[in-house]
Amino acid sequence: MSDAARSGSASEQEDPPNEGMMDQESWAEFAEMARETQGAACEMDLALEGAQGEGFDQLLLKKCKKYPGHHDFIPLHDLDLQRLPEGYRRPDILEYVKCLANRTVKLIVRYTSPDRPDEFGWTTLKGKKTPRCGSGEVYMRYQQDSKSDQIEIIVTTAVHVVYDEEEIKETTVELFYDRDSDRSSVIRARGDRQRMRMEERDKMVFYAQLSRRHFPDLKERIRPFNVDLGPISNLAICVSHPHGVAKRVTFGSLKTKKELEGLDLNPGLRDDFLPFLSDIETSLLLFEEKKVLYYTMYCSKLTNTITETSRLGISPSEQRRIIMKHLVNKGLLKCPSDDEVMDINEQLKDRLRVTTETFLEMFEDNEYILGESNPATAPQAAAANSAPEASENIQIPQSVSDQTFQDNFVKRQFELEREFSSKRLEFELEGGLPVQGWVQFYNAKYYLPTCPGSSGAAVICCFEMDGETHKMALPHSRSPADIGQSLDGVLINPLVNLLKVKQ
């Protein structure tokens, strides 16, 4: 299949061949058997495509034994205030759910990697091109190469839905499949490459590509969550594609949450940061780590995550400058020389997809970041950028495969992430952070109706703590630790990211 065919709208793509030529009833029976081998953590379903597959998702929905009738699964186009849970029938919650729905995508994975661990299921399909479907969430990349006819989006799902780059390249991402009877608004993207895989957290982040002509529609519909939610004592929300049908909304509740503090309670941090270490390995063997991270923080992290004006009216460019200056002043980053940054850019720009525009913006901002445009802060910034690092002195390593180096790198990255997130939170809070410290990671267990095909969809858990409404977000996954529990849909996912102010 050509790239052009795979990256256009639904009507423009070729229909991939289905493995075997079974009729729909036989394929549905095979799907039921295959689901038995997908593992306790997985809730995917098989797919049948092309003319042969028309209406197959509805057949699977009808035959579902987990939730016959699917009365708790609300079609997105039917969602209104009266369909929200009692006690939460408010416009702010309705707006938030619709914002989440716009980001929800259907994933069709046409290959199962032989390297997929048995605990992630589908053992009988390894090495086969049998299509299966799950769900995910999409994010825009606002910094794009203006010369390319393709644009990139970022997709988040569960590792057990899309395991590795072999599976990514055989994955189609369907956006805006909102009505069962109307696919005219569906846009398709093709999986391209892995951004981050966190097996410990059952989370996969990958890039997908689609035609540039869809950018205005995506920018209009995939909006940031700029919704001021009122009080919510306990509510779980999920928008997914059960059995591959159009979006359905389900509601439930958070059952338990356990705060995790300290690196000793974060076994998934290595999975979080070591793939990134591999990306920048070449530069780390030539330049100081803090200088390499200066480049990656500005050109990749901040550019892709800070794209909207903050609640306090601070522009994205000003937010980036303030954060970078703060991290330099804290001694966590160091600005490279002009020659060094040119060399680092040559090594990393393709791997990190850094555009020329972003690189030039970093050059322009360096003067402010280093404090030279503000005499009052210049000595502090200059000292932070040039002073010996004493106990924090990080030598250029001989190899990044050394266990001690990797452990220390993970710790330094963790501290950098915490400081970045804390500073970013100040842009959203009147008067800045009113309290000391804050926590990022939780272990959570929640309940809400889901079905095969829901795996990988974003689950938002809203709850009240310290008089404020807080949110956790995680990709839908039933943990292997829950094997043997009788309550369907009880889910657990470690190390959930949570922006939470700690009293």
Look up the CATH topology of the largest domain. Thrombin, subunit H
CATH architectural grouping of the largest domain:
Beta Barrel
Compute the CA-based radius of gyration.
23 Å
Order of helices and strands: HHEHEHEEEHEEEHEEHHHHHHHHEEEE
The CATH class designation of the largest domain is Mainly Beta
Classify the secondary structure makeup into a structural class. Answer: alpha+beta
Region (Disordered): 1-22
Can you walk me through this structure?
Residues 1-22 are annotated as: Disordered. With 503 residues, the protein is α+β, with helices and mostly antiparallel strands. It folds into three domains: 3-229, Beta Barrel (Thrombin, subunit H); 253-263 and 435-501, no CATH class; 269-426, no CATH class. The protein is built from 14 helices and 14 strands. The strands form two sheets. Strands 2, 9, 10, 11, 12, 13 and 14 form a seven-stranded antiparallel β-sheet that branches. Strands 3-4-5-8-7-6 form a six-stranded antiparallel barrel. Strand 12 and strand 13 form a beta hairpin. Residues 1-17, 262-267, 372-384, 386-391, 430-439 and 479-503 have low confidence and may be disordered.
Report a brief summary of the structure.
The protein has 503 residues and is an alpha+beta fold.
